[in-house]
Amino acid sequence: MLPNFPIYIVSKGRASNGLTTRALHEMGVPHYIVVEENEVDNYESGRCYGEILVLPPIYKAEYELCDELGFSKGTGPGPARNFCIDHSFWKGHKRHWVLDDNIDAFHYLNRNEKFEVRTGATFKAAEDFVCRYSNVPIAGFNYYSFCKKNDKVPPYILNTRIYSCLLIDNYANYRWRGRYNEDTDLSLRVLKDGLCTIQFNAFLC
After folding, report:
1. What is the DSSP track for 94-124?
2. CATH 3.30.750.200 fits 7-204, yes or no
3. What is the pLDDT of residues 150-201, one digit of tens each?
4. Which of 32, 60, 174, 180 has the greatest number of C-beta atoms within 10 Å?
């Protein structure tokens, strides 16, 4: 089974060590890899299994950094993540997945055992669950290391931060901002507005 919504990997400096793209490839899941223009050649000749998209420079130029340092430091992944929102919207999708580039596998947690998945079914199942509701602009998978086999954890947790592997509602009108901790900032704004997040423990990254 494949996810209904497109999957984007935001990547920089990891053309030869594409963990997430390799994991999705082994699962048979199509995906995009968003990279900056100066790294396109590296990624085209590197270990990339998805379709490469070039980040338009305007997304960095217009990005809200939330500090006074300007472009003296890197912007972080926020500009590329905003591009993912727009690209998936232009393609006619209601939601999209955006993933970090350092995820080496995806797992299913059941009865205190973790099983590595070789299918897109966990993405599809999460989509089906989230799409039942109209007030969940952000959902995602928890980290593998945050769910211990000997811990008692529910299949999902409501209204907490979502990191690294996110399912975003394109129509919710949220934009990424900030140089650091942009995941936390986005989650807090959603909750402050009285909306919900869903973090899956049954599905891990």
Report:
1. SEEEEE-S-----EEEETTEEEE--SSHHHH
2. no
3. 889 999 999 999 999 999 999 999 999 999 899 999 999 999 999 999 999 9
4. 32
pLDDT, residue 13, reads 93
- Domain residue extents for the chain: 7-204
Q: If you ran DSSP here, which 8-state letter would residue 150 be given?
A: T
110-137 residue pLDDT tens: 999 999 999 999 999 999 999 999 999 9
CA distances from 166 to 41, 68, 131, 186, 191 (A): 27, 28, 14, 11, 15
Contact 142, 52 (CB under 8 A): no
Query: Within 13 Å and on the Cβ side, how many CA atoms surround 46?
Result: 22
Structure tokens at 88: 């998936």
Output DSSP code: residue 66.
S
Instruction: Report DSSP state, residue 35.
Output: E
> Which stretch of DSSP H or E encloses residue 157?
strand 156-158
**N-terminal to C-terminal alpha carbon distance within the chain:** 18
